[in-house]
Structures are given as C-alpha cells and as structure tokens.
Amino acid sequence: MNALLLALVLCGQGTFIVRDTLPNGLVVVAARKEGLPLFRALLAFRAGALYDPAGKAGTAYILKDLFQQGPEGMTSTELAYAIEGLGGEIGSRVSYNDLRISLGVLSPHADSALSILARVVSKPALRPEDFQKLKRRALSRLQQVYSDPNRVVSRHFRRALYGEHPLGRPIEGDESSLEALTLEDVRDFYERFCYPNNAVLIIVSDIEQSKVIEMVRRHFGEWAPGKVKIPEIPSPRPVEGKYVEIIDMDVNQSYISLGHLGLRRSDPDYNGVRIMNYILGGGAFASRFFKIVRNEKGLAYSAYSYFEAGSKFPGYFIAHLETSVDNTNDAVGLVLNLIRDMKRKGVKKEELDDARAYFKGSLPRMTETYDRLADAILFGELQGLPDMYWEKDVEEIQKMDVDYVNEMARKYLDPENFVLVIVSDTSKLRLEIPGISPEEVHYGEIR
Fold it and tell me: What positions does the domain Peptidase M16 C-terminal occupy (predicted)?
C-alpha cells in the first residue's frame, strides 16, 4: 500500500504532513503550509556533540560550519553565489543530539535548492584550508565567550552538573580540545554518523507533498547508506548534596545558575513539569520568581527558571538570576525558599488556571511561520513524539488539576541537592547562604 497515503496527517489549519522513507533509509516529512510561496528544507543527522571524541570537544561544531563551505567541486564562494541566485539562505546548527543543515528559498526554486542541499550533505568537500580557517575562527570566538558572563556561567553550570559525562563538555569546545582537533577527527565523525539512514529531512512549503517527495527521491535517492553504530554512553549521575562554584570575573553584578538533573522529553510527566515550572519561574511576568524576587523584593534584574528536557538522558532544571553583588546572598536564599515552598505547598488553583490559559493562547505561535513549523516537526521526529504533539500537549495541560501539578513539584524539584554556579567579582562577594557550608564552596577559573 502506498506509504504516502498512509502517512497523510492533518496538522493545523491549512497544513498537511506526509511522511515517507527512501530506500536508502532517509526519513522525509513534507508539510504543506499554504499562504506564502516559501520552501524550507531542514536536514538533521541523529548525532551531535554528545559523540565528539574524548578530548576533542568542538568536532561536531566545526563540522556543521564545514557543511557551509561547499560540497566537492564547489567552493564556499560558489555555494554562496548559487544560493544567493535562488534568493535563498543556508544555515547549520549543532546540539548535543543532532547536527542540522537548513536551506530556505522561494518555492519556484525548490528543485534547485534540493539539488544543492543533496550535494552539500552527501559530498561535503571538508578541505584542509577550510578546516584551518574555521578552527582559527572557533578559537577566536572563545574569547567572546569568555568575555560574556552569561555564557561563562552556562558553560560552568553544565560542567558542574554533568562532570566528566559528555553532556558536560561545551559544544563549541575549549582551547585544549580545539588545538588538539584535526581534520581527520572531523572526517571520521562524518564517516561514522552522516548517512541517509541516520538522518531526517523536513520540508515545509506550499507545494503539494507528492511533488516534494518526488523531488527528494530524485536528488537524494542515490545517496548511499552506511553502517552507523551509536556509541554506548552511561547515564549521568544525579547531584548528591550541594556543589557551589564561584568564578571570578570583572563584572559589576552576579550571574547565577542553580539546578539539578531533570527529565527526558519522552517522560509522561513532561507537560506536568512544564506547567509547574511556568508558575514557579517560567512564566515571565506571571511567575513567582518574577513577582517576588524581582518586583516585590527588588533582588534581581532577571529571575527565571526552566526544565531543559533531555533526549537520550535526563535534562536539567535551572534557575537563573542576575543581581547586584550585594544582593547575591539574599537573592539565592529567596530562590531556594521559593523552590522549597513550591515543593511543599504546591500551586494555587488560580495560578493553574492562568497557566492553562497561557499555553492554550500560545499554541498558534508555535507553528505560525514556515521555519517554526519545520523546527517543531523536526523536534518531534528526533524525540519520537506523535504527530501534532504540540496540540496534544496543550490538550493534556488543560486536563491537569492542582493535585497532579503539586505531585510534579514534589517529584522533580530538589532544593537540597543542587549545583550553584556564580560568576561575580570575588573581591566584593562574600557568600553566606543558610544551608551552604564553606566546604561546599569551590573557586574556579574561566574556561
């Protein structure tokens, strides 16, 4: 039976999804979105920085930039001119779990765009001169990272939380890993993971799906599959006790991240945790963090929290603050008390009602543009979520009651076992927070 007929799914007003798998294993999802003559293609390999070789953090990061340097027989300048001639743009991005290349053009140029994308992903040139250029650029970018306190606190938070686990390594690498990185490392990563049978191609356009699939088969059908062996990586260990790291930096305020391991996106509790955190610190102007820490007490310029859901492994809960050095102790202490209060007492019915209304009202924004719809579909494919999961999520949230959300708080918040990273001027900071002993405080350097 025709797989295209079986895979037709209604996906919101004016949008349809067709799913197909090519003989070489490439999964293709074509969504029709009417309204504008746009064509967005997003190809992702199911391997990211999580699989960088030991001591070579930054491998996948460099590879994603090398894809934009052109395929065999085409320089980066020629690639740029070819895409510019179509009125389009190319991009690439890497996370811990995937590496993706995107290409957007006007829909009349869809066939030419797919021809270019197929060459880019199946036959990247991976030239030595391009590698050296991108390696120098990556090392130079690190200096920008090290001068940004928000990025410094983020990098150190991951290291403190995940330790030696690959999730603790920075995606963009550091000086030692980038200096050690060779072109052979990058080529080896490509040859291990970058095959059609380890990839998914998402296309959102105003073109009939069957025509899109035909174009994909024509341009990607000859791409040879390969043997992909995903390495076995153990799960990260949860935090036991308190680990505090203070990083000295010439700044006039404190940048603070506090958190612990969380849950996977596939966990059935995910939406319950989402709505609980919205009330705690994720709801911008509506959250307790914003109302109490920022507005009522005036202890922070910025105060929010979120659960970064993991894919293969548990993600994390993080509370982030920016406050004056003088207010650091009070701000951290108040946030910990608010987390404890949420865990012990839970949410109020009116808070839950407001949160449910927010998620219902924000649903159209999730897929209102071609790029957002492509990202949403790709996320679902990579996470193994059902079609139109964003609508199912909101439907599930509308049915939640106070008791269930309070159960999520008790289960997933842990204000007694956490890592706390503070980037501040240590000549002015004296850390004195109830429940944190001097033995739990460590001092580190920017890296």
Answer: 181-357
